[in-house]
Amino acid sequence: NKYGIVGRGAEIGGGFEVTAMVEKPAPANAPSNFYINGRYILQPEIFALLGNQQRGAGNEIQLTDAMVRLSKDQPFFAQPFLGRMFDCGSKEGFIQANIAFALARDDMKGPVFEMLQEFVRSHERQEEAA
Predict the structure, then answer these.
(1) How far apart are CA 130 and CA 124, in angstroms?
(2) Global pTM?
(3) In a structure prediction context, what are the per-residue pLDDT tens digits for the chain, which is 130 residues long?
(4) Residue 112 lies in domain
(5) 122 in a structural domain
(6) Domain count across the chain
(7) 54 assigned to some structural domain
(8) Are 108 and 50 contained in the same domain?
(9) Does residue 112 belong to any structural domain of this protein?
(10) Angle at the Cα of 47 (from 44 to 50), degrees rounded to 5?
C-alpha cells in the first residue's frame, strides 16, 4: 500500500490499456501488481482537474485521483518497465539509487567503491569493539 496500482487491460504494442487506477490500495483491493512509478505523459486537461481536486490518500492532492477522473474522457496506457527500480521516496531507496548510479559511472565507481569498502571496514571494527 505504498504505491498507486493500475488495472491491466488489453495489450497494445508491448504495453497495455489501463482499466483502473487506485492510489495506495490495501493489497487485497489492488487491481493488479503493476504499480505506478510516477513517469507520465499526460494531456494538458489534467491541470484543470488538479486545480479542483479533493484531497485523497494521505490527505494529499493525488495526481492519480485526477488521472482517474480524466480517464473517463480519454484512455490511458501503460508501458511496463523491466529495469531495476529504486524507491527514492524512502531513505534506503534514495541511498541505493545514488550508490548504484555512482557505481555505474566510470569517473566515480573506483572512488565510491573504495569509500563503501572503508565504511564497511569501519563498521566491522566498531562492531568488534562493542
Answers:
(1) 10
(2) 0.68
(3) 788 899 999 999 999 999 999 888 999 999 999 988 878 899 999 999 999 988 887 888 888 889 999 999 999 999 998 889 898 889 999 999 999 999 999 999 999 999 999 999 999 999 999 8
(4) 91-129
(5) yes
(6) 2
(7) yes
(8) no
(9) yes
(10) 150
